[in-house]
């Protein structure tokens, strides 16, 4: 048997959906996260691809954070609907008995000058490892959304 669930977070962004998607749709967000969360993330390495479908990133965490390195693959990029999905394909959550750990970012147009980022974690974990489901938290994605908001709204040079 497998246990699964979804967690989500929404944050309004004071920029058009197209501008938010520029950040979320490719590799820019990973670069921003690596740069701004240096106390947690040691490195985000591009293993394969160019930011499009099939791109694989290797996330390495700072020793002592309790987080395990993993690789994630961009499994869906829908530019029309502004949806991007990544799945852990090696290490990390898979080492804890998860059979699926998927992150979805949706940029939803609110009006011409604002949008909403909806961040979702979808996971499945084997029954015998169900206790490990407690490590899943939406907090990191909420912090990334806030980081993105701050980045998108800071004055351009």
TrEMBL record:
<dbReference type="InterPro" id="IPR023393">
    <property type="entry name" value="START-like_dom_sf"/>
</dbReference>
<dbReference type="GO" id="GO:0005634">
    <property type="term" value="C:nucleus"/>
</dbReference>
<dbReference type="GO" id="GO:0004864">
    <property type="term" value="F:protein phosphatase inhibitor activity"/>
</dbReference>
<dbReference type="Pfam" id="PF00407">
    <property type="entry name" value="Bet_v_1"/>
</dbReference>
<feature type="domain" description="Bet v I/Major latex protein">
    <location>
        <begin position="29"/>
        <end position="128"/>
    </location>
</feature>
<protein>
    <submittedName>
        <fullName>S-norcoclaurine synthase</fullName>
    </submittedName>
</protein>
<dbReference type="GO" id="GO:0009820">
    <property type="term" value="P:alkaloid metabolic process"/>
</dbReference>
<dbReference type="GO" id="GO:0005737">
    <property type="term" value="C:cytoplasm"/>
</dbReference>
<dbReference type="InterPro" id="IPR000916">
    <property type="entry name" value="Bet_v_I/MLP"/>
</dbReference>
<comment type="similarity">
    <text>Belongs to the BetVI family.</text>
</comment>
<dbReference type="GO" id="GO:0006952">
    <property type="term" value="P:defense response"/>
</dbReference>
<dbReference type="GO" id="GO:0009738">
    <property type="term" value="P:abscisic acid-activated signaling pathway"/>
</dbReference>
<dbReference type="GO" id="GO:0038023">
    <property type="term" value="F:signaling receptor activity"/>
</dbReference>
<dbReference type="GO" id="GO:0010427">
    <property type="term" value="F:abscisic acid binding"/>
</dbReference>
<dbReference type="InterPro" id="IPR050279">
    <property type="entry name" value="Plant_def-hormone_signal"/>
</dbReference>
<keyword id="KW-0017">Alkaloid metabolism</keyword>
């Amino acid at each position: 048997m497998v246990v699964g669930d979804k967690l989500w977070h929404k944050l309004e962004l004071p920029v058009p959906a197209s501008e938010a998607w520029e950040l979320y749709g490719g590799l820019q967000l990973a670069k921003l996260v690596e740069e701004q969360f240096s106390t947690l993330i040691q490195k985000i390495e591009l293993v394969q691809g160019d930011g499009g479908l099939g791109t694989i990133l290797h996330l390495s965490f700072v020793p002592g954070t309790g987080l395990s390195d993993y690789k994630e693959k961009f499994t869906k990029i829908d530019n029309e609907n502004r949806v991007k999905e990544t799945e852990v394909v090696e290490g990390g959550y898979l080492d804890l008995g998860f059979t699926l750990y998927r992150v979805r970012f949706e940029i939803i147009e609110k009006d011409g000058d604002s949008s909403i980022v909806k961040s979702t974690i979808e996971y499945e974990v084997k029954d015998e490892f169900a206790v490990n489901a407690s490590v899943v938290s939406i907090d990191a994605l909420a912090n990334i959304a806030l980081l993105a908001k701050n980045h998108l709204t800071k004055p351009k040079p």
